[in-house]
Amino acid sequence: MDKLRHARVWYILGAVLTLVVVVASLVPPRDLPRMHINDKVEHVVAYLAQALWFGGLLAPRSYLRLALWLLALGGGIEIAQGLMGLGRTADWYDFYADAAGVALGLALCLAGLRHWAAWLEQWLKPR
C-alpha cells in the first residue's frame, strides 16, 4: 500500500463524495438539476466513483469490507427512498446498478488504478 502524505485530505474528500451521493439520492427529484443521463448509469457512475476513490486509499485486503459497506449504503438509500414519501421510490434495479458500479470500481483498482492518490501526490509534489 502506498504511503500517502495527504491521506486525511483524500478521506475527507471521499466523505464529501459519499455525502453528495447520499443527499442527491434522498432529496426530492424536483430539487435536483436534470442531467438527462439514464438513471441506472448515474447509479453505476456514483458507486464506481466511490469504490475507486476509497479503493485507492485502502489496501486490497480491505476491498471486501469496502464493497459490503457501499452495498449497505446503496441498499439503505433505497429503503429510505421507499419510506420517505418525498417523490422517491425504492427501486431494486438501482441497487443492482450500485452493485455493478462497486464491482467495476474495485476491478479497476485491482487492475492497477488503486495507486491514483499516490500518482496524484507525486505529480503535485513540488520539485
Model description:
With 127 residues, the chain is mainly α. It is elongated. Helix 1 packs antiparallel against helix 2, helix 2 runs antiparallel to helix 3 (63-84) and helix 3 runs antiparallel to helix 4 (92-110). The longest helix has 22 residues, at 63-84. It is built from 5 helices and no strands. The protein has one domain (7-124). It has helices spanning 7-26, 39-55, 63-84, 92-110, 116-124. The model has no long low-confidence stretch (mean pLDDT 92).
Terminus-to-terminus distance: 24 Å
In percent terms, what proportion of residues is strand? under 5%
Number of helical segments with 4 or more residues: 5
Helix content: 55-70%
| SSE order, one letter for each helix or strand | HHHHH
